[in-house]
Design a protein that fits this description.
Layout: E1 5-11, E2 16-22, H1 24-34, H2 38-55, E3 64-70, E4 78-83, E5 87-92, H3 109-113, E6 118-124, E7 131-136, H4 143-153, E8 158-166, E9 172-182, H5 188-201, H6 204-210, H7 218-221, E10 227-234, E11 236-237, H8 243-250, H9 255-259, E12 266-269, E13 276-279, H10 281-290
Helix pairs in contact: 1-2
Length: about 290
Amino acid sequence: MKRDYLLKIMDHEKNFRVYLARTTSLVEEAHRRHGTSATASAALGRLMTAAIMMASDLKGEDDILTLRVNGNGPAGTVLATADSQGGVRGLISNPFADLPSNSSGKLAVGELVGTDGEIEVIKDMGMKQPFSGRVALLSGEIAEDLAQYFLLSEQIPSLVSLGVLVSTDLSIQAAGGLFVQALPGAGDEALEMIENNILALGPITAVLDSYDRLEDILPLIMHGIEYAVVGQQEIAFRCNCSREKLGKVLSGLAMDEIESESSEDIEVFCNFCQERYSFTPQEILARKSNKP
């Protein structure tokens, strides 16, 4: 499988910045862990891709960005959280929910997500209160909704393309995303040129499926425009849950809650990665007695 990573590009005249990412392996990992349907894989994969691309701008090692979408569709809540170090994880309330593709074979992500709700962006950068912005959903397709968020909440005109190509066996054949964001004072001619280049590309997943290296896609995106690669980052599915962390949570249970479990082990699992952890009541009581 082709390597997951992200590139940041800027044109020499500083009219815009471009983010290009391949996320095939990490979306496949999410599909494998959650057992998602084809359309649920596309919804979750698009949101995880967007989250990891946006989180690449975070500065602090412990900074976290979360994207949450709920359009009151069959998918329920779709959530992705990414860190500044290239890790991302995600979940979808109804991973088995699915809808028929449209007449052109396009997965019905907008219908699965729904439009009766909001897309929310939360940036936790170690301050007293995280930054939070939200806008109403336009289509539930996620890319269009994010472009609307960038424009209304951050005043950044943006072109957003996100895609997940699902194979007939439900594995992920290709996934990734492309952001183009105008910088202050951007010239109309340069913006029109790159917009036309991207329209000529076709679906982003088809391009990612055809090229092994993101660097080989850049000349297509930036045709006629001088540019430089200004950043690169390895990205992967990564969950920060652990036995130790969940043990601390369980040690906060009331004594009667632990004793009510009798002698049976207490099993907990992480909603993001589906890993399961088993603890004996005695182990939890011992952790509880050792708490400061």
